[in-house]
Structure to design on (1019 residues):
């Protein structure tokens, strides 16, 4: 064979390109309009076959020559000083290669710059049962486990902070000295417009108390990590992490090794749901052990240890006062949330803000106050779980609205429909809303469930309940302050027609690798299976911040569109010159680049790459994405802004057995405003999975504690931590609403988290419709339902829920004039109330 | 300080045995206390079999023994020497996916894919026993396999699709499974 490829349209490529200018070619802009060749289609994921064949390598599947096994020793005490640690007997055990303690890794780390409060191994202060204090590397797991038993730790026990009430009452002993006040990690007090005046003038003020129990992610894969320190003094860590970039930064800080000598590879995650978004001690420990021993080291946590890693849903007590007019129009909302944060900061500062941020984006809330507090307690640290900080307040808002509708004798659907936050608007707390498809979502579930006929009309024991929600499509600000892109993509085009996409994103099962392939394939007019995707590898891929906050499709998608558009922009010059057609008439579709007016004039994509390579050199490009600036400028305005908000409406049908309190959910109808599906099958999977996880939280999931001031995990096992099996999962009828958003790639918004949010309040509202009792707590487990039904029969308040909130000294208010006040997005002194005369 | 090396108190005894996995014979020397899960993953490098708890709670490590699903994490390997064992690696016929695998790919029934090998094998056992399995049969057969991603729905749809095709029917996915109502 000669060196020239024979083109599909005859002739050879790689010669006679002639003079081509690429400077005056307009950049590629994706049309937001169908028809698309790939976008929206229910194509299989590019990695689906590997997963079904058992060939996908997860972190624990990695085996390297001479690999050692690591195990970690964890504190059996909830709160203690470490007086001494003696590792000598463990070190002397045959087969043990290294033993390390906190003094070997003294630098603190943490996901947020303001909460650098963790150590890979705690050296002098343990804060929960499960806090790691020492680690061993040995020739095998059995030896490492035996070595742990030979480590002698002497503890001096400290007073335990077991609950948020404990934290309020006991500023000492402090878990962390950087807390805002004693053991209160973070206190927030924000007000947008004169709330008290609005509530005073309201026709009705509905006041409610709610409690939302903590729950955990329960990914099927136990966290695992492998590290290798090469002869070239470079460190590689493979890990089941959702955030390789942040692990990269934590490794640099703790190991004092420049990031340029560290490679982090995010392996496919066997489920994440937010539980693998923090850098973890075990990732740092295997790295340190690999450096000390000169051998690869692997750790795979036990399921019990996964429960201790946690970072799951915060338990939150909430108080909400809502003022409405006689027709149910909201005039003001006063919201308080009290978060039990557990032992460390994690994402907690963001979590407390998130319990107050998104109340305003579904319905118009003209005046709004939010007070929130997160306490440190001696329990496994809470953090971001699917919906991060928003399922709890969403439960409160949607149940309180149901009560308002009941009191005013209004249809709960009509109550919501009449006061939807408009598209392309600013909320009272300065969030910029783009597309808003909630109306269509409500209409669909109301129609599908036969709501108008069935609501308030089903026989005793059966009921329907409605709730709505919204979620961010990516956070507007990065976790650490910087002005760099949130997502980067590199493209390399092979002269054989193949395209490789490089991106730092991490596929946790949601399909983000496939999304990259679909989007690049759409822009370049090739098949997704012709695209190789390389992701989550700090040596090979440009930074993407990670798989959290529902950001990946939007941000990597926009970066991929830009990168692919730039490749097109380079290719059209040589191709147009060769074909002798104007560049703007070229179409990339079906693996061919051709003249829109004369499709016979064209060449294969492979020929086009070869031609371009001949003309301009190696064909590749980069693209990146940074979210638009948010108009909010007040302290705390960083949490809540997003390029786009997804919307969901849900109706749940329940059957309540009044004898036992057992609630069954036979069916859920859910409408989700996805903006635009990049792959409708993947969206369906996310919606159904979100309903599933919401149903688990609604009915049974509890991160519960017992004994010793309530700090010993009640059931760190998958058998006792109840989650829905096939027998509990409901049928789901899904409606996808496509209301494209100008900020989304092809108009797409998120699907991974939003559809979970309305499920819990829909179930609560349905229980009320079924048996006339209010369960103002999550989960709505049988004892609570049974108790409320009994109380109702005895003439007591037909309700199960909290009776009060902790008493917290709130900080001075940050008062922010609203857009309607002519505000500038910044905080200003509160104006004197009108008519009080100073 | 201890000066003498500490001997491991219970040095595991290694034994020799033959395992019949996916129609192939493997002679293995392995510690006598190892579970079938450990022998498959660590001695035979068949890492397609996953684990989620190693306590018999999640179903992730399901393999087939004589066509019947068992939890390999609770199975002492010694008890399964010289017994036909099937793992996910044995499902495909060369490069051709098993109809269940094909349907799982088509329906998006594998999200993170971690529970998938166990679910596929439990489903295979079901369909060999009951080719006309209905939705309730599928729910019963998979009640011991936890999945945190899918809400099980795409899994049911994939198994029903595969079952119909394995019965020789011309079956296509329902439009609403892909696009909603």
């Amino acid at each position: 064979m000669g060196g020239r490829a024979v083109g599909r349209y005859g002739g050879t490529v790689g010669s006679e390109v002639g003079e081509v200018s690429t400077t005056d070619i307009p950049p590629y802009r994706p049309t937001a309009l169908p028809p698309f060749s790939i976008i929206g289609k229910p194509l299989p994921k590019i990695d689906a076959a590997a997963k079904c064949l058992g060939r996908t390598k997860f972190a624990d599947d990695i085996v390297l020559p001479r690999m050692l096994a690591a195990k970690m020793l964890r504190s059996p005490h909830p709160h203690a000083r470490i007086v001494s640690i003696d590792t000598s007997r463990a070190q002397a055990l045959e087969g043990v290669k290294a033993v390390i303690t906190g003094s070997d890794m003294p630098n603190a780390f943490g996901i947020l710059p303001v909460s650098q409060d963790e150590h890979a191994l705690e050296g002098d202060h343990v804060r929960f049962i499960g806090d790691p204090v020492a680690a061993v590397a040995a020739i095998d797991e059995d030896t490492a486990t035996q070595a742990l038993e030979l480590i002698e730790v002497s503890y001096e026990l400290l007073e335990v902070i077991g609950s948020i009430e404990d934290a309020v009452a006991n500023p000492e002993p402090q878990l962390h000295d950087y807390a805002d006040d004693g053991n209160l990690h973070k206190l927030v007090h924000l007000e947008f417009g004169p709330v008290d005046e609005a509530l005073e003038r309201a026709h009705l003020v509905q006041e409610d108390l709610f409690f939302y129990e903590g729950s955990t992610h329960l990914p099927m894969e136990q966290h695992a990590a492998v590290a290798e320190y090469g002869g070239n003094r470079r460190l590689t860590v493979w890990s089941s992490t959702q955030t390789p970039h942040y692990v990269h930064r934590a490794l640099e800080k703790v190991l004092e090794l420049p990031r340029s000598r560290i490679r982090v590879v995010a392996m496919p995650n066997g489920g994440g749901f937010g539980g693998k978004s923090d850098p973890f001690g075990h990732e740092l420990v295997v790295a340190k052990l690999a450096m000390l021993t000169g051998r690869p080291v692997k750790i795979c946590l036990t399921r019990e240890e996964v429960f201790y890693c946690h970072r799951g849903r915060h338990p939150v007590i909430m108080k909400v006062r809502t003022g409405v007019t006689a027709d149910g129009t909201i005039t003001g909302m006063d919201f308080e949330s009290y978060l039990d944060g557990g032992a460390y900061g994690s994402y907690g500062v963001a979590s407390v803000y998130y319990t107050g941020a998104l109340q305003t984006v579904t319905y118009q809330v003209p005046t709004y106050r939010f007070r929130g507090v997160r306490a440190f307690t001696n329990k496994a640290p809470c953090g971001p779980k699917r919906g991060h900080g928003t399922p709890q307040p969403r439960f409160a808002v949607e149940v309180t609205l149901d009560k308002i509708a009941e009191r005013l004798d209004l249809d709960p659907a009509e109550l919501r429909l009449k006061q939807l936050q408009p598209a392309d608007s600013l909320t009272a707390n300065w969030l910029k809303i783009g597309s808003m498809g909630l109306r269509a979502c409500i209409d669909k579930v109301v129609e599908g469930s036969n709501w108008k006929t069935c609501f308030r009309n089903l026989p005793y024991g059966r009921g329907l309940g409605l709730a709505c929600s919204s979620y961010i499509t990516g956070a507007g600000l990065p976790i650490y302050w910087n002005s760099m892109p949130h997502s980067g993509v590199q493209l390399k085009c092979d002269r054989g027609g193949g395209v490789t996409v490089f991106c730092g994103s991490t596929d946790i099962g949601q399909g983000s690798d496939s999304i990259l392939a679909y989007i690049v394939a759409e822009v370049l007019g090739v098949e997704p299976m012709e695209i190789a995707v390389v992701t989550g590898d700090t040596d090979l891929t440009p930074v993407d911040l990670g798989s959290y906050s529902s950001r990946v499709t939007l941000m990597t998608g926009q970066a991929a569109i830009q990168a692919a558009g730039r490749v097109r922009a380079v290719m059209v010059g040589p191709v147009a010159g060769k074909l002798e057609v104007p560049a703007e008439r070229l179409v990339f579709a079906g693996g061919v680049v051709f003249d829109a007016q004369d499709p016979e004039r064209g060449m294969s994509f492979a020929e086009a790459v070869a031609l371009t390579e001949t003309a301009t050199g190696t064909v590749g490009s980069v693209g990146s994405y940074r979210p638009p600036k948010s108009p909010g400028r007040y302290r705390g305005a960083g949490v809540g802004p997003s390029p786009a908000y997804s919307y969901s409406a849900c109706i749940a049908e329940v059957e309540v057995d009044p004898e036992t309190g057992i609630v069954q959910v036979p069916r859920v109808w859910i409408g989700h405003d996805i903006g635009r599906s990049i792959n409708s099958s993947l969206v369906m999977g996310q919606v159904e999975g979100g309903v599933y996880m919401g149903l688990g939280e609604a009915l049974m999931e509890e991160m519960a504690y017992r004994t010793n001031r309530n700090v010993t995990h009640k059931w760190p096992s998958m058998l006792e931590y109840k989650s829905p099996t096939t027998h509990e999962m409901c049928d789901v009828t899904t409606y996808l609403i496509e209301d494209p958003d100008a900020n989304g790639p092809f108009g797409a918004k998120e699907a991974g988290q939003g559809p979970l949010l309305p499920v819990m309040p829909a179930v609560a509202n349905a229980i009320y419709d079924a048996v006339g009792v209010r369960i103002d707590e999550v989960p709505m487990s049988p004892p609570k339902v049974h108790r409320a039904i009994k109380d109702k029969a005895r003439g007591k308040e037909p309700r199960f829920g909290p009776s009060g909130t902790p008493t917290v000294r709130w900080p001075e208010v940050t008062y922010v004039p609203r857009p309607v006040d002519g505000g500038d997005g910044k905080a200003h002194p509160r104006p004197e109330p009108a008519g009080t005369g100073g | 300080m201890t000066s003498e090396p500490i001997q491991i108190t219970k040095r595991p005894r290694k034994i020799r045995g033959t395992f019949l996995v996916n129609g192939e014979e493997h002679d293995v020397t392995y510690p006598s206390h190892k579970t079938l899960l450990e022998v498959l993953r660590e001695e035979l490098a068949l890492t397609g079999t996953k684990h989620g708890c190693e306590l018999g709670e999640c179903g992730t490590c399901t393999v087939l023994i004589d066509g019947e699903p068992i939890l390999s994490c609770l199975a002492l390997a010694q008890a399964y020497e010289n017994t036909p064992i099937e793992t996910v690696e044995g499902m495909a016929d060369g490069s051709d996916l098993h109809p269940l695998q094909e349907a799982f790919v088509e329906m998006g029934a594998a999200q993170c894919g971690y529970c998938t090998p166990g679910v596929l094998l439990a489903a295979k056992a079901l369909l060999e026993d009951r080719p006309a399995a209905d939705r309730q049969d599928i729910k019963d057969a998979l009640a011991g396999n936890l999945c945190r991603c899918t809400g099980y729905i795409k899994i049911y749809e994939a198994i029903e699709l595969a079952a119909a095709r394995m019965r020789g029917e011309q079956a296509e996915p329902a439009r609403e499974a892909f696009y909603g109502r």
